[in-house]
Fold these 3 entries.
Entry 1:
Amino acid sequence: MTNESEQKKNETRWIQLVAGTDSQGAPVLEKLEVKLTEVGAFEMLRSPLFVRDLAAGDIFSCAPDNPADYQIMKRSGNLAIRFFRKDNVAPLVWYYGNIYDRHDGVTPLHWWDEFLNTV
């Protein structure tokens, strides 16, 4: 029989993280489904659409009072690719969701090196 803390540990919940800012500079939040893995740590159940630097299966921590400040604790090895289209498919606009630094958008994160080095 599991105790109450074990039940809470595997509990699915919804949290909001900052995905960017709107034209007035106000934060834009994305609601994401996560699993609580330990106090203050979450596992992404699906790759986010707008929040950068996260993919399904990643473990991260987040301060409850600051949804803009999340820290990656462990990468899952999943690649997040985000597709955007306004009308037709050609030309298709797409971005990697967790390849580049979320602050400058161009610096490679190189988190995949640990996975490549094990092969």
Entry 2:
Amino acid sequence: MNRHRFFSAAGLIAVATLALFLAACDGPTQTGSAATTGATQAAAVPITSVTEQDELAGQASGAASYLIKVYFSRFGPSDANLSAVFAVNRFSPSLAVATFAMQSLIAGPTLSERAAGYFTELNSALSGPSACNGSHPIGGPDFTLSLNKRGQKTEQGTATVQFCRTYSSAGIGTDARVTAEITATLRQFSNIKNVVILTKSGHCLGDETGKDTCLK
């Protein structure tokens, strides 16, 4: 029996009100919507790995926040390198750090980070209603995140992100940057070795061949 949990969205304004739900029993699936981060906290506990239990529970235990990184693209000399990404710090309010990292990536850089050249095209690429079910007051989450899964197939060390909303690409450059941002953001956790990114319809992001090679 599959159980799912969903995170409520508050646009690009708040993360403190994220709702917590359950995931599939044979591999945790999290869903999330874009959210901004809270104020910088000095006493954050660094997180270097993500466990299935913590992502399923999604609840902080004993500490106020958890230090993670989110990887954005950046305007500058590295423009020609589509896979170049740059880390900024975020503080997750729960142990569901992989989901929070993805939510923060979709939310995008802060105003000061934008002024410094950081950017992502991911937020503007997602549009339309969410295909993921749940009791969401504003229409559903932006993505699902499954640990130890390559699509529907169990595979240790692989995380699968599937968008719940329509992804509209501006071209191969956008796809390459979005792929690099998501991959780096999730691979900061030592037990995520590979990342698969799927569109709302379940196809590999940016796969022009139609063969869905990312699932093989």
Entry 3:
Amino acid sequence: MAVTEKYVYFVDDYFLICLNRQTGKKVWSYETDDYVGSSPAVVDGKIYFGSTDGWLYCIKAPEDEDGYWPMYGYNPARTGSADE
């Protein structure tokens, strides 16, 4: 788990999940191709985590609480989901 001033990041099987720290509401989630094998780390506005699919992921952290979520490689098919 990683905690910042506004967000909490944690992994659950194939997902990296971002929660609003104050409300506990899910902001977005990001699905990988395989089991997420490491806890996330937040450095300089980026979230890093590894997966057993052999990739080290780097995702831009949310800029605000208005439903922003990351897009992987500018490919909508690999984009996380924002829950209203």
